[in-house]
Amino acid sequence: MAKEIKPSSFSMHGDPEDISAGDVVEDAQHDAVFGEIRQGGPNYRNARLQVGWLGTAGLMMKAQIGLGVLSFPSVFDTLGMIPGVILLCTIAGITTWSDYIVGVFKLNHRHVYGIDDAGQLLFGRVGKELFAVAFMGFLTVTIAVGVQDRPPTAPLDVAWKSDYKLFGNPTFAEAISSVSTLIFAYAGTGAFFPIVSEMRDPRMYPRALALCQTVITVVFLVVGIVVYYYCGSYVASPALGSAGTTIKKVSYGIALPGLLVSGILLAHVSSKYVFVRMLRGSDHLTSNSFTHWATWLGCTFGVCIVAYMLASSIPVFNGIVSLAGALFGTLLSFQPMGCMWLYDNWSTGKEKPTKRWRLMVCWSIFVIVSGTFLMIAGTFGAILGIVDSYKADGGTSAWSCADNSNSS
């Protein structure tokens, strides 16, 4: 007999309860998402197809590690290495808490499949559509978007010495745009709802999350610090453009398979979100009907086309990354999770408020307010940066085929 997970089995303080390796976790309310499983149709809850905590950690890492990390060296150049590292670790801490709340909220509300379902619980139909737009706007934009003896743009007539800065002197718009870039790199949170929905044991989610966030933060720090240390102000964005012509081609060749995997994964997650939402509650969701496959192929093709259009219309790498981080990343990683904690804990806690409850209320409100500020200010900074890039001498333009792999 399969075990049924109760919301109370997942604590805010500790790891999930242990279960034997042969157990299959089954939740009756998953039927509210996928409907009745029919013979001959796709079985989304087949235990053999569900992922364990290591597989979940791998999927979460690929949802996080993408093109965003390639802009970190230029972020450090703008902010300075020390402020850059501090802000990176701060964003990592806040988003790790947010990611953790995803697992808690999912186990407390089993019918939630995507962040839009959480939005409907919090704010009704308006919240559902707002979070849906943010989710689709982000996995779409994400799909769209090495060091030698000296950087290729550095002067050749003098001895090369890196001019990296420990502290930068950015304008407000430059600083807030850089922070938005850091948020973009950690904003895979919206994809975590569907991932935890199909785990073999959702109670193992915190373990997968801890591994994911530890690995990606180390990777982000190493890439950002090492590349910026050796390239200084001549660092390119994407960072692979910091290598010479030959090494750059090799680097892109090595990176291409990983970028393709990230693109395919994010295209799949976003397409499946639209697919489930369109067919949820109908027989076509779990049947091999013409409608089932036509909808699935249409969703996949549509997401990729929209991503291509966005990438071509805003070919400024730093600009599109910071814009996505500010406009969509905050709305997926900050405000909703603060609201989720308040939704689940406000009524019960206010009757007998404890010190911990008051601190968590303050923290949740801080996450909501800071996320809103970063969304507004970051969007302003990103748009200003894109406009300046278009005006700059030799700057790129929309729908241009010009090489922008060495942009700074």
Q: Indicate the mean pLDDT.
A: 77
SSE series:
HHHHHHHHHHHHH
Intertermini distance: 59 Å
DSSP helix count? 13
* Low-confidence runs of at least 5 consecutive residues: 1-31, 145-150
Helix content: 55-70%
> What gross morphology would you assign?
globular
Largest sheet: none
Give the structural class. Answer: mainly alpha
Q: What is the count of structural domains?
A: 1
> How much strand content do the residues show?
under 5%
The Rg value, from CA coordinates, equals 22 Å
How many E-type strands? Answer: 0
What is the fold's blueprint, element by element?
Blueprint: H1 31-34, H2 53-64, H3 72-79, H4 81-108, H5 115-144, H6 172-185, H7 192-197, H8 205-231, H9 245-279, H10 290-313, H11 317-333, H12 335-351, H13 355-391
Write up this protein.
The protein has helices at residues 31-34, 53-64, 72-79, 81-108, 115-144, 172-185, 192-197, 205-231, 245-279, 290-313, 317-333, 335-351, 355-391. The protein starts with 30 loop residues before the first helix and ends in a 17-residue tail after the last helix. 44% of the residues are buried. The protein has one domain. It has 408 residues and is mostly helical. It is found in: Membrane.
